[in-house]
Design goal:
This protein is α/β, with parallel strands linked by helices. It is built from eight helices and five strands; from the N terminus they run E-H-E-H-E-H-H-E-H-H-E-H-H. The chain starts with a strand and ends in a 17-residue tail after the last helix.
């Protein structure tokens, strides 16, 4: 079995970045998408799962795989998985690693995605990480993805050729939203809030970056918010 350039795995978190990555994959000729969604004990797991499932319908996914990764919750160390750690209010100018960082999460997720890709003859794995993530999350940096590509190349069968694609790694959230609107991404069926299933809080880091992106583009974010602060520059 050899991999091909019409099938791709997309890590589908339920958020706007991964949804845009799925549509970007289609725009690049990957017409058979295999969506991998994981629940790891995060606060908004149910809502994210619903959004990832909706995305699978929107892109007419070839397959949808939902995996429970409860070990990340058992390990802890993140405000997304540990009830004793509060989700912090937004601080978009901070260079510190936020409490929402889940230790080495992307390595866990990408490992599963590569397994999924190799088993299904996929030529690529797409992840929606971007530049505003890697200012705070070490496993979203370009160097991390470059290193992981080497792991993929070394750790798969000789006739397997899987490209790790992070199309937005040098983009801002605003750039992603602009591209998604151009591609017709159904952002009403995506979820970014770290705190609440409904409505979104509007004041955590994830809400702040998302709202700022739409505000800078002069567009209204279609999901419901408890608060809609003005984050645009």
């Amino acid at each position: 079995m050899t991999t091909n350039d019409t099938r791709a795995v997309v890590l589908a978190s339920g958020g706007m970045d991964s949804a845009t990555a799925a549509y970007e994959a289609q725009s690049r000729g990957y017409d058979q998408l295999y969506l991998l969604h994981t629940s790891y004990g995060q606060n908004t797991a149910q809502r994210e799962s619903e959004c990832a499932t909706a995305l699978a319908d929107h892109v007419e996914a070839a397959d949808f795989c939902h995996v429970e990764t409860s070990h990340l919750q058992q390990i802890g160390g993140s405000s997304l998985t540990d009830d004793e750690m509060a989700v912090a209010d937004a601080d978009v100018d901070s260079d510190e690693i936020p409490t929402s960082y889940v230790p080495f999460r992307n390595a866990n997720l990408l490992s599963m995605a590569v397994s999924y890709a190799e088993a299904n003859d996929c030529g690529a794995v797409f992840i929606g990480a971007h530049s505003e993530d890697f200012s705070g999350y070490p496993d979203c940096r370009p160097a991390f993805f470059e290193a992981f590509q080497t792991v993929v190349d070394v750790g798969t069968k000789p006739d397997t050729d899987i490209e790790l694609v992070a199309p937005f790694v040098e983009w801002s959230k605003t750039d992603i939203a602009e591209r998604g609107l151009e591609l017709g991404v159904p952002y009403e069926d995506t979820w970014s809030c770290y705190r609440s299933d409904q409505p979104a809080c509007g004041t955590c880091d994830a809400c702040a970056f998302r709202l700022a992106a739409f505000q800078r583009l002069g567009e209204r974010d279609p999901v419901a918010y408890e608060q809609r602060p003005d984050y645009a520059d």
